Amino acid sequence: MSAAPLLSLEDVVVRFPLRRTVMDRLARRPARAVHALNGVRLDLHRGETLGLVGESGCGKSTLARAVVRLLDPDDGRVRFEGQDIAGLVGAARRGFNKRVQMVFQDPYGSLNPRMTVRQVLHEALSVHRMRPRAAIPGRIAELLDLVRLPPDSADRLPHQFSGGQRQRIGIARALAVEPDLLVADELVSALDVSVQAQVVNLLLDLQGRLGLTVLFVAHDLRLVRHISHRVAVMYLGSVMEVGDTEALFSAPRHPYTRALLDAAPDLDPARRTAVAAARGELPSPLAVPSGCPFHTRCPHAFDRCRTERPVLAPRGPAGRAACHLEGFGAPA
Amino acid sequence: MTGVADTRPGALAVRGLRTVFASPAGPLTAVDGVDLDLAPGEILGLVGESGSGKSVTLRSLLRLVRPPGRIAGEVLWGGRDLLGLRPGELRRVRGREIATVFQEPMTALNPVLTVGRQIDESLRAHTGLDARGRRARGVDLLDLVGIPAPATRLADYPHQFSGGMRQRAMIAIALAGEPRLLLADEPTTALDVTIQDQILKLILALRARLGMGVILVTHDLGVVAQSCDRVAVMYAGRIVETGPVAALFAEPRHAYTRGLIGSVPRAGGERRPLLSIDGTPPGLGARPAGCAFHPRCGFATDACRREAPPLAAVAPGREAAGREAPGREAACWHHAAVAAAGIEAPVPEPA
After folding, report:
1. CA A202 to chain centre
2. Which of A71, A275, B48, B147 could form a disulfide with B142 if both were Cys (CB 3.0 to 4.6 A apart)?
3. A287 touches chain B (CB under 8 A)
């Protein structure tokens, strides 16, 4: 991974300020904000699938939105091929929009109910002038074939499709403009298990055939493990650990990753435990704990964790973890 | 499963349960002849995809189905048929002998009453305790479900509780009548994975401590593997396979179970195709003839299209060689072929 990353986040901060209520003003309480991303550093390499995993409020969806520039960071930068995407205007902005595409979580809310599949794909193809007018029908047929929808789907409306088929339409729409980077935010979490597997298989196949770079955002560890070359684990707006999938899952170097893996219900009934993997509740992103955000739930926390925020530092050959316990999970 | 019904206290035997909803388009059969057995203190997982009828089955056991839904069959609770009880008798079973926990921790609690008041309501209905006794018992219950500082939390409103704590409070309310059976409908689906893990461990601990049985409805096979003794897999309103968890996961005997297990990514199979199931589950009004799974099934033959296979006993299988694995049943004409196929996806030939 010595080549320059396709996309990198440099200390990205995103805050969502809360409106001050009358009571806040009377009590002279300071303005509060949800800290969605607290200085995230992350690289995406060409041709890889990076899995982004974490529990609710960890900032994974905010990160996905910052990557496709659906929102701008309050601080830090997102660079695409070295260029700060916040500075892109006009043709450069349109070029970026074409090369970075997103597929959304909700198969029911993310397609216009009045547009046929043909209209959806036609719009994507013509806005970005992907094909001469005459070639568009042929390209639509190709796209439907690519996502394995029957050719007669083109003239149907979204309500005539199942959830899994709608996600295929969303993928076809994203791929219509031949992007380099596909951002998939909880692509299959609204689908039944048997249908999830179909869409996951499709994504694996497309990623390999088209050489796509994929940012796969999900809360399901099993899925992320299955699909990703590398995985980043987030907690309350920070990346806690990032590394090659195999290394991260077999020997996590952060106590939170360990807890997350142990909490995920294993399909093997023989690996049953009696004690919960993590104690306590998820803190609110309105009040992220000082120091290491995980210290309130961490069984290994000591004084330094409560005051000093650990930085993401190298662990093992290709990983990084943000933990003061450098030796955590290290091979003995 | 069509054997003699267990009539011991705390045992549940369901026979021929059918729940039908009248609709303008004709009757819709959500539950289509379900047989279930639960020994006292046993945890049974009822697993299936959306529309499989698992939740309606659970609700039908306590007749929690509103018109135009109609329930038929037998639900034998310690030998008594719950479907034949008069309303007053049924009320004494609900909450006191059999309690329920539903999926939505955000909406199942009344937002304008304190948690303590809602626990108190349950205690008043199901116990003979006086006000002081109920308060003390309320503190005990919150403590039992693992809520810290229970005495002060009784005065909190639901919005002051996190999702996980609300689900704990729901369980506390359910436990107020000291039930012998807990019906839990997707109790952890809305929760984060670390909180889900805590709630499942809590249910296991409570079972061990109170000796109550649990029927756990879920779509997550991992949840079943981690918390149930036995599992019943539902598809299109019927139970297609049932058996002890370890045996069923090691060697599924119904093509649908096999596909479902294969659809879940497992360690060691990274970036390989999953053993997915083609198509989507059928709607209530469009149930295929014969075996309802046949249009999606790679093993299907003419027999499957013609006639629905009955849920029948199958041999324990090779995973149980030398061990007892009783109670394995599958409704599949090709259960032997399914067992032989295993649960690994075929590796595609190089092009």
Report:
1. 18
2. B147
3. no
Sequence-distant (6+) residues with CB within 8 A of A314 are A320
Does the interface ipTM go beyond 0.85? yes
| Contact between A200 and A223 (Cβ < 8 Å) | yes
Tell me which DSSP letter residue B302 carries. Answer: H
Distance from A234 to chain B by nearest Cα, in Å? 13
In terms of Cα–Cα distance, which of A261, A224, A266, A259 is closest to A245?
Answer: A224
Cβ partners under 8 Å of residue A69, min gap 6: A78, A85, A86, A88, A96, A97, A100
HSE, side-chain direction, 13 A CA sphere, residue A28: 0
Chain B neighbors of A55, CB-CB under 8 A: 192-194
Contact B278/A at CB under 8 A: yes
Residue B148 near chain A (CB below 8 Å) = no
> DSSP string of A280-303?
SPPPPTTSPPSSSTTTTT-TT--H
In this complex, is the C-beta atom of A245 within 8 Å of any C-beta atom belonging to chain B? yes
- Mean residue pLDDT of chain A comes to 93
- End-to-end CA, chain B: 47
- Asked if A192 is an interface residue toward chain B (Cβ–Cβ < 8 A), one would say yes
Three-point CA angle A318, A321, A323, nearest 5° = 150
pLDDT tens by residue, chain B, 351 residues: 457 888 888 999 999 999 999 999 889 999 999 999 999 999 999 999 988 999 999 999 999 999 899 999 999 999 899 999 999 999 999 999 999 998 876 788 999 999 999 999 999 999 999 999 999 999 999 998 988 899 999 999 999 988 888 999 999 999 998 899 999 999 998 888 998 999 999 999 999 999 999 999 999 999 999 999 999 999 999 999 999 999 999 999 999 999 999 999 887 778 888 888 888 888 888 899 999 999 999 999 999 999 999 999 987 655 544 444 568 999 999 999 999 888 876 655 444
Q: Which domains does chain B have, with CATH numbers?
A: 41-55+86-232 (3.40.50.300), 243-341 (no CATH)
CB A7, CB A78: distance < 8 Å: yes
Which of chain B's residues have a Cβ under 8 Å away from the Cβ of A285? none
Query: Does residue A153 contact residue A117 with C-beta atoms inside 8 Å?
Result: yes
Which chain A residues contact residue B194 at CB under 8 A?
A: 55, 259-260, 263, 276-278, 282, 297
Other beta carbons within 10 Å of B68: 11
- Two tokens, residue A267: 């399909």
In chain B, residues 40-59 whose CB comes closer than 8 Å to chain A:
49-50
Look at A18-32, A91-105, A137-151, B193-207 and tell me which has the smallest mean pLDDT.
Answer: A18-32
Q: Which residues are CB-contacts of A14 (< 8 A; sequence separation ≥ 6)?
A: A36, A37, A59, A62, A66, A71, A73, A74
To the nearest whole Å, the CA of A250 is away from the closest chain B CA by 10
To the nearest 10°, report the CA torsion of A238, A240, A244, A245. Answer: -100
Residues A278, B197: C-beta atoms closer than 8 Å: yes
